[in-house]
Amino acid sequence: MNIPDITTDAAALALWVALGTGVFAVLAEGWHSRRTRRVARLAFGPLGQARLWTRLAPPLRVLALTAMAWGLVTLFFIRPRVASYDKIPDGGYRHLIIAWDVSPSMQLDDGGFDSGKQKKRTRAQRGAKVLLSLFERIALDQVRISIVAFFTGAKPVVVDTYDLNVVKNILDDLPLDMAFDPGKTSLIDGIEESVRLAKGWEPGSTTLLIVSDGDTVPDTGLPRLPPSINKVLVAGVGDPRRGVFIDGHMSRQNARVLRQLAKRLGGEYVDVNDVQIPTAQLAELAGVRNLVDPGEKGRRELALGCVATGAGLLALLPVGLAFFGSPWQSGRSRRAKEAQ
Fold first, then answer.
1. Considering the entire predicted model, what is its pTM?
2. CATH class of 94-286
């Protein structure tokens, strides 16, 4: 169930519910007082009167019920601290779109060496390692991750997930290239699919991260980035100096093309074949943001206080009235006489 934000209508409804509860509580207290007067001597002894402090009980019950009604209705309409996944609250979740190159050249083993080992890494393995390092430095509880795989075309693999295990499984040498027809890599298709994915999201809420070993990008025809994408990072994998033969041609990281692509998209290029993505470039993803409107804070705490106070009064009043409401209690008087 989606819980709406607190609005003027919701606040008015809470006041009307509280007012209605107060009116019915006053009527009930009047009825209860009339019935109590009929059996006053039986309840309070020969004098037919309770202690003076008990005159506070009816207005306290009315106030307690009214406060509880207002507090519960207000809490129902206030947005919870864990926001809904299908809508970004103001200042809330950020999106990270990873445009992931799954072309066969990403399986070439010039992505460096494993730490402390002489085993070479493929470009895809190096890219995955860089991304896993990135996930350790961002506020994952407030970031939703989407992956767009591209080769001869582009397909969204997962959209807005918060499960890191799903992302790791996709990056762990999943043969996504099998989902595409053989041919030339089309990096621009991956960008276009990422743009389509981000179009409906909140302005300034998305970071686009492109991981690739490079491709020929046309001089014109790059898609215009929507307002939702406010940062672009292009991460290049593979050795940019020494190539590896594949399909009869030399393949290496095309750093020049990736750098130009980043500039045309208004972003930054990072050669991650030997280094990680600098932490300074992750500021938008690493900063913890408030998931709720700060203006709701006072209303929420006031509502919680009303509910707690009202419930406490309603629970303690019957105990107080039973033990301290009347100076005459037949059961105690009888036991006192028998003791003497």
1. 0.58
2. alpha beta
